[in-house]
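Worked example 3. Consider a protein that binds flavin-adenine dinucleotide.
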Amino acid sequence: MYYGSGNYEAFVRPRKPKDVDNKSAYIVGSGLASLTAACYLVRDGQMKGERIHVLEKDPIPGGACDGYEYKSVGYVMRGGREMDNHFEVMWDLMRDIPSIETEGVSVLDEYYWLNRDDPNFSYMRATEKRGQDAHTDGKFALSDNASKQIMKLFFTPDEDLYDKKITDLFDDEVLNSNFWLYWRTMFAFENWHSALEMKLYLKRYIHHVEGLPDFKALRFTKYNQYESMILPMIEYLKSHNVNFMYDCHVVDVKFDISDAKKVAKELIYNSTDGEKSIPLTENDLLFITHGGCVENSSMGSQNTPAEFKTELKAGGGWDLWKRIAANHKDFGNPEKFCSNPELSNWMSATVTTLDDKITPYIKNICKRDPHSGKVVTGGIVTVKDSSWLLSWTFNRQPQFRSQPKGQLVGWVYGLFSDKKGDFVKKTMRECTGKEICMEWLYHLGVPENEIEELAEKSANTVPVMMPYITAFFSPRRIGDRPLVVPKGSVNFAFLGQFAETPRDTIFTTEYSMRTGMEAVYTLLDIERAVPEVWGSTYDVRDLLHSSYALTDGKKLLDTKMSFFQRLALSTVLKKIKGTDLEKLLRRYKLID
Ligand SMILES: Cc1cc2nc3c(=O)[nH]c(=O)nc-3n(C[C@H](O)[C@H](O)[C@H](O)COP(=O)(O)OP(=O)(O)OC[C@H]3O[C@@H](n4cnc5c(N)ncnc54)[C@H](O)[C@@H]3O)c2cc1C
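Given these inputs, the predicted complex is written out as structure tokens:
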């Protein structure tokens, strides 16, 4: 497996890999990573679908990428996936996955046309004082000292950030800025999370800095991502006769490990008809999604809270990883990520409006008609003075293909599930759906005497607790996550958010898909480049533009600096006079 960029290899069709007709594949999990692996096995590996088996513990596919109507409680989507034009693997694959909406069109076409015709942006990024504009006004509001801390993190080598927390690098000048408000609510970072991950995010999305305050950097699918992404992939795979096994809990994998090579020898799983085992030869490729950000996630309802269940059991992603990791140090260190759910949990709640009484309050904030079928909030709206640190969003409606006309389905989330609310004097995790809705309505500015009735009669709200949702942001070091294909592996690979691949950022759909592609390309030795992570961090134009944006448009010489620093800068500026460098600095407005 090797990386590439540009068009030369992007459009080439690889020839059939050697011996692929003698190989089979077993894939643990049916999340995006696994489905991507299966699609690449079919498309580029040219493996027959009948030889590919997907073992999923849940009754439906998709894992974290959800959006489902549960007959007992209502619509649930645990999140809405903010996406990017430079999800290189995603678009490499989705150009060949047929849409399930429009005949003859790919998922990529559908997404591109939608976002081109109706680009995303927000008129109101944050509110305070019960629905008032918090007037972040598109500014990052970073002091010179805060900008320096961010710059320092950007250039700190990874190894100096191992096991460090964000608060080891940033002080209150960063943490109290608009920048941090935008950042932590958009990406779900907590102050105690990994400084290394923070740096990787900064580098990965440097080209988007200017678009962060109003979300013009983002793109979204038409419906929830289960319907817009998972279902088309499932249809594609089924049309190639891939075998899906649901309610199938993989409990353990046995390996044969020597100095020279590592071979997966046996897969043990529990299904409705008891414990079973699949013997594996070197021609049986095994792809394992280990760990999991929505493991142990639990659903409440309008009138019941979602339970905070943290116990890890056999047949789940974490227990499986622990058993596998016991075999060899190359298989990672799951304890680093799953041992403290108090530091990795948060909650979301799906709100379905049942009549039009709540709509004016939404409209008042997002400044758009939520029923127009177009962008509504344009990304999350953060309630700056909420003790749960609530953010909420309504994407284009309907979000579900079955959604009744007139209803709106949106999503609320809080980063601090253990703090008491401002109106409902309970922690978020103690609240029923109705109570979470009440707290949200309070922050929308609904008169206090109307809140309870609206939450009860005009909405149905389903809370979800996710104890391990940000487990991947735990401070870590190299080796804590196994490589996608560990050294010496002959027939197995790790997939998803807890497999190690360079430069990309976890908690993204792209990361999971990338591991799927890299795993297949490595194990089948496919003769085509995997698209490298978008290289904006190496593009001087993006670096200059982001410096200008992060400092809210400051010129270089307006930055606070010592006499000698100013002298040095002035000398450099004189030296580059009349060169392309001067033109570049002017083009990006860093000098007059
Ligand atoms: C609330 C939320 C918000 C998000 N926001 C964004 C966003 O804004 N932008 C973005 O790009 N991404 C976002 N993501 C992340 C993205 O959705 C996930 O990274 C991605 O879907 C994970 O896919 P995966 O295949 O790696 O893992 P998963 O989806 O977790 O899939 C793993 C699968 O394996 C199964 N499994 C685990 N153990 C076993 C076992 N022992 N036996 C059998 N099956 C097993 C699980 O049931 C699951 O189906 C968000 C996710 C959530 C939950």
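Take a moment to read the result before moving on. The chain has a mean pLDDT of 97. DSSP finds 18 helices and 20 strands in the chain.
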